[in-house]
Each structure stands twice: as C-alpha cells, then as structure tokens.
Design brief:
By secondary structure, the protein is mainly α. It has helices at about 5-25, 35-50, 65-90, 90-105, 120-135, 140-155, 160-205, 210-230, 235-245; strands at about 110, 115-120. The protein has a two-stranded antiparallel sheet with strand order 1-2. The relative contact order is 0.15.
C-alpha cells in the first residue's frame, strides 16, 4: 500500500495532530495512564476526526517531501495546542507553589502520581482536587472540543502560521502566571496581614522570638486558608474553558 495515497495520508495527518496534542496536553499525557490506553485512544479519536473533517483539497497525489512537510506542520500545530492547554492547566500548581513558599514548605518534595515527577505536597493536593472537579465537569470534553475546533480553523493538510502559534503559546505562558497569582491572591493577603501583625508584635515585645513564633503560624494559617479557599478552585474550571477557547491558535 502506498503511504502517499490521499486517503491514507489524510489519516496520517490527523493521527499526527491528535498524537502530538495527546503527548503534551494534560490528562491524556499523564504517566499514570498505560501506553496501550493512550495509543488506543489516539487511534480511536483520529479515526473519528478523519471521518468527519474531510478536506477535498487532499484528494491529490503528494510527493514524499510534500507529505513530510504536511506531517511536520500537523505535529507542530498539535504540540502548540497541547502546550496552550498545559500552560493553562498549570495555573493551579503555580498558585500552590506560591502558597508553599509563603508557608516555608518549598523544600518538601513528594512523588506526583500523575506525572511520576517530584512535586510539593500542597501543589499535588490542589492539583488533584482541581483534576477531580475538572473531570466531574466533563473537562476532558473541553480538550476534544478544542481539538475539533482546530480542524475548523486549520483543515487537514493546511499550513498553520508559525507567528500565531508562538504568540498563542507565549500568551498562554503569561496567562498561567497571572491566573496562578489570582488564585493565590487571598492567601497572599492573609500572609501579608500576618507579617504586619508579627512586625507590630516585634515592636511591642522585642524580647519575643518572632522567627520561632512565625514558623508554626505561617504553616497553620496556610493550611487554614487553603482549606477555606480550596472549594473555590472549581470556579477555575469555567475560566479555564474560556481561556482555552480564546488562546486556541487561530
């Protein structure tokens, strides 16, 4: 069978974009998911998209170089789309890392069961809570819808604009930092108030060991504030969907 036949090449292009997206996107790229499940899901989704988004312009013969360039373009677009989703998904972990630094727990490391990498305890906890809320709200469908919209913007076999791809990824990275700061803003405000109280106590009672007193207070206040604001992470699921739709490379 000739790999340069239009129908087979069309499926290979779809498989390349879907595989590149699943390789970088959250949930689908986690190490805890068996490789056989990932491959099966990738092929199944590719068959589904290839049967729906048919590009009539693909019904012609291509040379080996043209086919290679088309496959490379699909891989780049899939990776860019997955990086945008991964950056937005990492806002919760950024917020948790900011809180851990304020609590003095930045040196504590545990194994992240999702990525098989080292992570901070609070970051892993907040990420798992967000994951449960995200999946409960059918958040994985958001990724599939974003992938489906990408074929409306860039049909199979089209060449995406590199400047638009890089702009989307760069904007997603800056948005990740902004959203992480917004999520952790209430906890940062509580720590700022605690520091003001400790500074006032140091002036009123100079003999008090503020450093020794501040360590348990920071940890205790951090845990209390996280417990209070943890349920509000669910509101970020809707905001995540809105940002993903805005930052899809168009």
């Amino acid at each position: 069978m000739d790999l340069l036949q239009p129908n087979l090449l069309c499926f290979v292009l779809v498989l390349t974009r879907v595989g590149a997206f699943f390789f970088t996107a959250p949930v689908f790229s986690w190490q805890s998911i068996p490789m056989t499940v990932k491959l099966t899901l990738t092929v199944f989704v590719s068959v589904f998209f290839a049967s729906i988004f048919v590009n009539p312009a693909m019904q012609k013969s291509y040379s080996a170089l043209e086919a290679f360039l088309l496959i490379a373009a699909e891989a780049v677009y899939g990776l860019a789309l997955g990086l945008v989703a991964a950056c937005l998904f990492g806002a919760v972990k950024i917020a948790a890392r900011i809180c851990e630094r304020e609590m003095g727990l930045s040196m504590a490391n545990i194994l992240d069961p999702m990525t098989d990498e080292s992570g901070e305890p609070l970051g892993v906890l907040m990420e798992m809570v967000f994951i449960l809320l995200f999946l409960a709200a059918n958040g994985h469908h958001v990724f599939l819808m974003a992938l489906s919209r990408s074929y409306e913007t860039f049909p199979i076999g089209s060449i995406p604009s590199i400047d638009k791809l890089t702009a989307s990824v760069a904007t997603a990275g800056s948005t990740m930092l902004i959203l992480g700061l917004r999520i952790s803003a209430p906890i940062l405000a509580a720590f700022l108030l605690l520091m003001v109280v400790l500074a006032f106590l140091a002036r009123v009672a100079p003999e008090t060991n503020i450093l020794f007193l501040s360590l348990p207070l920071k940890i205790g206040m951090g845990l209390v504030m996280v417990a209070i604001f943890l349920p509000f992470i669910g509101s970020f699921v809707t905001e995540f969907t809105e940002w993903l739709n805005k930052l899809i490379p168009l």
